[in-house]
TrEMBL record:
Keyword terms of this UniProt record: Signal
Signal peptide: 1-23
Ranges where the EfeO-type cupredoxin-like domain occurs: 10-111
Species for this entry: Hyphomicrobium denitrificans 1NES1
UniProt-listed InterPro entries: Cupredoxin, EfeO_Cupredoxin
Protein name, UniProt field: EfeO-type cupredoxin-like domain-containing protein
Amino acid sequence: MSFPVRLTSFLFVVLFSAVSSFADDDPVFVIKFADGKIEPPSVEVPANRRFKLILHNEGTSPVEFESTELRREKVLGAGTTSFIVIRRLDPGEYRFFDDFHPDTPPATLIAREPSNQ
């Protein structure tokens, strides 16, 4: 293996490790959907920080996580799991809903600054 190839490989591994370790430090929040129900109905998340939402569809029909305020949507088949990474939110409340079950009340992400105690 030539020096440029080894150097490129080494840099790729170092860069990937740094990105991977950063992603491992992101807070994770779980939202469950089940045939017209969203649990929990509100989720407190950190403001101004990247985080991950794990979306579980425990129901027997497809669901669609949708939020016009977050400009995000994700369709999940019955019994599937997926995720959405949110880079950062200003403090405030952000509604989301299941677009495939319009009678389901919307749920809320509440972005708060961490308290300095």
